[in-house]
Amino acid sequence: MLTRDELLTQIHDFDLDAYANLIMSGVKTAIHIRRERVDESRLPLGASKLGGSPDVPADFTWPLYQNKPLTFMGQFRLSEVAPYDVDRRLPDQGMLYVFYDEEAQPWGFKLGEEEASRVLYTADENTPLHRFMHPTAKGTYGYVEALPACSLTYFQIVTPQYSDDRLRDYEGASWDVIDRYFMFMSKVDELQSSSRDKAAPSHWLLGNPLPVQGDPLVNAIRDHATSAGQDLKTIDRWASTEWCLLLQIDTDDAPDQGLDVMWGDVGRLYFCMPKADLAAYYFANVRCVLQCT
Q1: Helices (H), strands (E): how many in the chain?
Q2: Which of 149, 116, 129, 154 is nearest to 37 (CA)?
Q3: Are 270 and 220 in contact (CB under 8 A)?
Q4: Range with the lowest mean pLDDT among 14-28, 53-67, 68-82, 198-212?
Q5: How do residues 279-292 score in pLDDT, each as one tens digit?
Q6: For residue 274, what is the enclosing H or E element?
Q7: Torsion angle of the four alpha carbons 198, 202, 204, 207, in this order, in degrees rounded to the nearest 10
Q8: Mean pLDDT of the chain
Q9: Distance from CA of residue 162 to its chain's centroid?
Q10: What's this model's pTM, rounded to 2 decimal places?
């Protein structure tokens, strides 16, 4: 695990000490998700997993978007996650279920596309569950079907704010400083990879998003906020202060490993939500944004 002390060492090595407090103030702890493809029949009901079919209560109804079933992305048994949630942001028990339109892969930031993803929460882990077999349906470009099932293990990582927005807005930060910040972040990403597994995708809960193009939190709210008359500066501030990352799912297309998915052109999914909703354990307003190169 990359620690805060190691981040401070890298800040010094890249001659960014004058900006250390600014950089460290944006650091957040995340829960990295390591997946391993498995025979789903060997997984206990209610175990955390990516892909496969969900283990759900009797009253579950499969979520739809544009009259087709969403793809089940995964479920998280929150008592398994809790030991790694050092900031106690998630419930300490219950089941979290995540769905997305994997077949059509909408960007998610356009008005109306918020229904292309869904996060469901069951508070009581003792609720009886059954495995609801994933439906298959014809979609826009192909077929909706189950992703390969993967068992999960968790561990903590620290995630700096990956964009340079803090430095750009800071008086006195020259382009040379911003260049060194990018080199610093490249080194941080290298250290993150070596501390887990160089082949492991960047799947994680909470923390800062690892963007492909711009801030995913801004993407999640921009069209909705501009339609309500908000200016871009206000939207940027609102995204950073009022919204947070719930879950990031990376492209995971290594042969015979993981989820066998690519988001656009080697992109990522970001499930974003209001901070106030997360504090209230209310997951109905989660929006999923796709970014790719």
Answers
A1: 8, 16
A2: 149
A3: yes
A4: 198-212
A5: 999 999 999 999 99
A6: strand 268-274
A7: 100
A8: 90
A9: 14
A10: 0.92
